[in-house]
Design goal:
Number of strands of chain A: 2
Distance between the termini of chain A: 53 Å
Protein name (chains A, B): Cytochrome c551 peroxidase
Enzyme class (chains A, B): oxidoreductase
Strand order of the largest sheet of chain A: 1-2
CATH superfamily of the largest domain in chain A: Cytochrome c-like domain
Radius of gyration of chain A: 21 Å
Shape of chain A: globular
Main location (chains A, B): periplasm
Structural class of chain A: mainly alpha
Order of helices and strands of chain A: HHHHHHHHHEHHEHH
Number of helices of chain A: 13
Largest sheet of chain A: 2 strands, antiparallel
Helix content of chain A: 25-40%
GO molecular function (chains A, B): cytochrome-c peroxidase activity; electron transfer activity; heme binding; metal ion binding
EC number (chains A, B): 1.11.1.5
Oligomer: homodimer
CATH architecture of the largest domain in chain A: Orthogonal Bundle
Number of domains of chain A: 2
Chain lengths: ~350, ~350
C-alpha cells in the first residue's frame, strides 16, 4: 500500500530508461479515458444523482451542496485553502477536485473511502461540511419532497427507495460522467506534435526526468492505471529536512494514520489527480501553498530532495497547463420542490 | 406611493364589479410577458452576466454567489427564513425570488433599489451577504482573472471595462431572461378552460372577491402592469389587531422607512411577485411564516381583516399552484480561472 511496491520499482526503472532515451514512456503518460460510466449508470440514475449533487437542502442550513466545495463551474473545487461548510465552519483539508475523481483508486486525501459512493456519504454528516447529524436526516429531507420520492422509486424500483445508499449510488453515477478528455497532452499523445508548446514539451520531459512520474503517472497522473483496483498511497513529506515542511506545516496532518490509527500509515496520502491542476489553487492537503509554481518547488524539495531553477519551474507549470481538458456541458438541474413549505425550515 | 392611490381605487372598483359579475377582469389577471430583454441585452452581455451571477469568488470567503440565495435550480430563493451569507452570517429579511424579478417596479423588500442593476450592487458589500468591504474589491477580484478582463473589454468596448457598474449591468441583463411564462394560469387566460382545476378556479375567484387583487394584480400579481415605471408600496401589516402580528413579529421591521428614514414610509413594503410562490417558502419579509396556507391566513387577517375557512384557504393555495410557470433551461457557465493561483486566497 505504500511507495516502493514492485510496480513502483518497475516504474522507476522505466523512468530511468526514459531519461536515457529522452522519449515518452507510454506508461507514464496516457490519454484520459473518454468515459467511465458503468453499465448500471442509466440516464435516469445520472439525472437523479445530478440533482442530489447540486441540492443544498441536503445540508443542515440548506446552504451547502456537493457543488459548493466541488464547483463544476470551475476546477471542481472551491478555490479556498480549506472548505467552508454550514454556519461558516471550516475543516483542515483542501477540497480535492471532483473532475476525474472516478480515476482515483481511493477517495479523500487519506483514501478512507474506497469509491465515489462511499466518499459521498461522508460530507453529509461531517460537522464542518453539510452538518447533518445522521444520514437518516438526509433521507428525511428527501422523503419530504414528493417528486424526489417518485424519482427514487422509478430509478431503483418501487417502494421505500429513498435510502442513503441509493442516494450516494446516484451521486456516484453522476460523478462518473465528470471527465475532461482531449487536453493538449491527449492530442500530443495521439500524435499531434503541435499540441504542446516547446516549454510544455520541456516541462513534460523534466516532469519525467526529475522523478515526478514515480508517483504521478497514468492517464490522470495520479498513480492509477485503467483496471487498477488497489488503493496506492505515498509518503508525504519524505524529506523532513526541507525548509518547506515547517513553512507550510506539511507534517502535522498524519494522513492515512488519522483514519486507520495505524502507525505504519503515518503521513501516507493518496496521490492527487493532476488533470486541470492549474484550476485548483491553492495546493497540498492543507491548502497552505498558494501557487502552482510554489507547489512544484515544494514537491521537488520534499519528495525528490531536488532544487529546480526558476526556468525549470516555469516549464513544469507550462506542462501542467497542457492538462486542462474539455469540460462537458452541464444543464442546470431543476430541483423538485415541496409545494408551499420549505424542507429546510421546521414547521411552526 | 402608498396604497389607495387613484389607480388602486379604480382597481378596487374593478374588483367589486368583478365580484358582481363573477368573471375574470383582465386588469387583475394577465399573462406573463414571454420576454423582458432590452435592445442592449446582447447574447454576449447576458453570457457575462450569467457567469458573474454564479461566481462565488466575488464574495469575501469565495463561497457565496448571487445564486446562493437566489437559487435558479429551485424557486429563485434559498428556502430559508433569512439568508446565510459569508461566514455563516444571517440578515433580517427573507430572500425574494429572482425569477420574474424584472417585473418588480422596484427591488428589495423596501424598494430601495430602482432596478435590477442597482439591486445587484447591494449584496456584494453587505456584511452578512457577500461581505466584500467595498465594490473596488469585487472589481479587483475580477481584474485578476484574465479571461474575465477580456470578456468585459469585448462586451463593453476596449479598455478598463471592469467596473462595478458594468458588472451589475451584465448581471441585470442575465436576470431579465429569468422569466417563467406558460403557467396553467396563462393557458387558462388564453382560453384553455381545462388548464385550471375546479379548486383553482374557485381559488382564483376568491383571490379576487376577497380583495387580494387590490395589491396583487397584473401579470406577476405584484401590482405592476407593463409600462409602469413608478414604484408602488403598500402598508403591511394594516390591521394591527391581528393576532398574527405578534405571533410572527410582523411589525418590528419598519420597511421602507428603514431605507428612507421618512416616518411616512413606515411599514411600507413592495408587493412581492406571486408567480411560483409555492416554491419559495417560508414567507413574509422576515420568513417567519412557514407555509403558504398560513401565509394566506396571515394576509387575509392583517391586510383584509378577514377570516377564511380552511376550504377557502385550500382553494387559494390551489390557485397559487397554477402560478408555477415554465423554467427556461440554463446551461451551467464555465467560470474563467486564473491559472495556478486562486483569487480567493491571498498570495503567501
Amino acid at each position: 500500500m505504500i511507495v516502493n511496491t514492485p510496480t513502483m520499482l518497475v516504474r522507476t526503472l522505466c523512468s530511468l530508461i526514459a531519461m536515457a532515451a529522452t522519449t515518452v514512456v507510454a506508461a507514464d503518460f496516457a490519454a484520459l479515458p473518454k468515459t467511465a460510466t458503468l453499465e448500471t449508470d442509466s440516464p435516469q440514475i445520472i439525472a437523479l444523482g445530478k440533482k442530489l449533487f447540486f441540492d443544498p437542502r441536503l445540508s443542515a442550513t440548506g446552504t451547502v451542496s456537493c457543488n459548493s466545495c466541488h464547483n463544476l463551474m470551475e476546477g471542481g473545487d472551491d478555490g479556498r485553502a480549506t472548505s467552508m461548510g454550514v454556519d461558516g465552519l471550516t475543516g483542515g483539508r483542501n477540497s480535492p477536485t471532483v473532475w476525474n475523481a472516478v480515476f482515483q483508486s481511493s477517495q479523500f486525501w487519506d483514501g478512507r473511502a474506497k469509491d465515489l459512493a462511499e466518499q459521498a456519504k461522508g460530507p453529509f454528516v461531517a460537522d464542518v461540511e453539510m452538518g447533518m447529524g445522521v444520514h437518516d436526516q438526509v433521507v428525511g429531507r428527501i422523503q419530504q419532497i414528493p417528486d424526489y420520492v417518485r424519482e427514487f422509486d422509478n430509478v431503483f424500483g418501487q417502494g421505500n427507495a429513498v435510502t442513503i445508499d441509493n442516494a450516494v449510488t446516484a451521486i456516484a453515477a453522476f460523478e462518473r460522467t465528470l471527465i475532461t478528455p482531449n487536453a493538449p497532452l491527449d492530442h500530443y499523445l495521439a500524435g499531434d506534435k503541435n499540441a504542446l508548446t516547446d516549454a510544455q514539451v520541456r516541462g513534460m520531459d523534466l516532469f519525467q526526468s526529475t522523478g515526478c512520474t514515480e508517483c504521478h503517472f497514468g492517464p490522470a497522473l495520479n498513480g492509477w492505471d485503467p483496471g487498477d483496483d488497489e488503493a496506492v498511497f505515498v509518503e508525504f513529506p519524505r524529506n523532513l529536512d526541507s525548509s518547506f515542511v515547517r513553512k507550510y506545516d506539511l507534517d502535522s496532518d498524519r494522513g492515512r494514520a488519522e483514519a486507520t490509527q495505524q502507525e505504519s500509515d503515518a503521513h501516507q496520502f493518496k496521490t492527487p489527480v493532476l488533470r486541470n491542476i492549474t484550476l485548483t489553487a491553492p495546493y497540498m492537503h492543507n491548502g497552505n501553498v498558494a501557487s502552482l509554481a510554489e507547489a512544484c518547488r515544494v514537491m521537488a524539495s520534499t519528495q525528490l530532495d531536488t532544487d529546480l531553477s526558476e526556468d525549470e519551474i516555469s516549464d513544469l507549470v507550462a506542462f501542467m497547463e497542457s492538462l486542462v481538458g474539455e469540460f462537458p456541458p452541464i444543464t442546470l438541474p431543476r430541483l423538485p420542490s415541496r409545494s408551499g413549505t420549505s424542507v429546510v425550515v421546521e414547521f411552526k
